[in-house]
Design a protein that fits this description.
By secondary structure, this protein is an alpha/beta fold. The protein has helices at residues 40-53, 88-95, 106-117, 162-166, 168-173, 178-196, 234-243; strands spanning 2-8, 12-19, 24-25, 30-33, 60-64, 68-69, 72-73, 86-87, 101-105, 126-132, 136-142, 145-147, 156-157, 160-161, 200-204, 224-227. The strands form four sheets. Strands 1, 2, 3, 4, 5 and 9 form a six-stranded mixed beta sheet that branches. It has a five-stranded mixed beta sheet with strand order 12-11-10-15-16. A three-stranded antiparallel beta sheet has the order 6-7-8.
């Protein structure tokens, strides 16, 4: 069974049909740059471009980098503030010509995919998926059940949102070495561990492709730490799972 998934990020919007039997992309993904400013109307146009690239005409799952409740986007940390309280499911459905659209938090989608097909498969207890990108997304699972919209990238660290200090964007913006950035990630993980005491951290986002450059440098964390197996496709897969009602 194939369902379409779209992952809206702060820098790129990517999507592809997903084979839900394998938990992998059925075709190579298509990606466009996130418009600046990332207004609802402009982003909806980009989502349409990605979906139209494949000539898709079925259900579509879409991730969003913020809190989503019943298809409505409630926060907008790394996109235009016009998204706040927007009925994103309706907006995107209308733009896609009436296709059924399911919208959920981006890290929740990535976590759902990893818990089903990837690094969290079969794991019980408390598992926290963290996606390092433009910001830091989070997905918390207790015995396989998602606690939605946790937004742990916005916990306070050194007087600021943690993602301003430890996201991969912060690494790029401040030209940090892998060692310098790993120390920031370590500080952040230690704080989250103090709050939640998870058995497992799954480290995702685009930077997970280079986990060998920084994860071995993170010290003093009691929980097991592993890179996301689906890497940066996890959001697309999780979005498709949500659209298929498998969440």
């Amino acid at each position: 069974m194939e369902i379409f998934g779209v992952d809206i990020g702060g820098s790129g919007i990517k999507g592809a049909p997903v084979d839900l039997g394998r938990g992998d992309l059925a075709q190579p993904r298509h990606k466009v740059l996130t418009p600046q400013p990332a207004t609802p109307d402009d982003v909806a146009g980009c989502v349409k471009e990605v979906v139209d690239h494949f000539g898709w005409s079925g259900p579509v799952g879409v991730t969003f980098p913020g809190v989503v409740t019943s298809g409505v986007t409630r926060t907008a940390a790394n996109v235009d503030k016009g998204w706040i309280d927007t009925d994103a499911a309706r907006l995107l459905g209308d733009r896609l010509g009436g296709l059924p659209v399911t919208v959920l938090n981006d890290a929740d989608a990535a976590g759902i995919a990893e818990m089903t097909f990837g690094a969290g498969r079969g794991r019980t207890g408390t598992v926290i998926m963290l996606t390092f990108g433009t910001g830091i997304g989070s997905a918390v699972f207790v015995n396989g059940h998602l606690v939605p919209n946790t937004e742990l990238g916005h916990v306070e660290l050194h007087g600021h949102d943690a993602e301003k200090h430890a996201s991969s964007k912060a690494k790029e913006d401040e030209d940090l070495s892998w060692s310098q950035w790993a120390h920031r990630v370590q500080t952040y993980l230690a704080h989250i561990e103090m709050l939640f005491s998870p058995e497992l951290f799954i480290i995702g986002g685009g930077v997970s492709r280079k986990s060998e450059k920084f994860l071995p440098l993170v010290e003093g964390i009691r929980a097991e730490m592993v890179p996301a197996q689906l890497q940066n496709n996890a959001g697309i897969v999780g979005a498709a799972m949500a659209a298929a009602g498998r969440v």
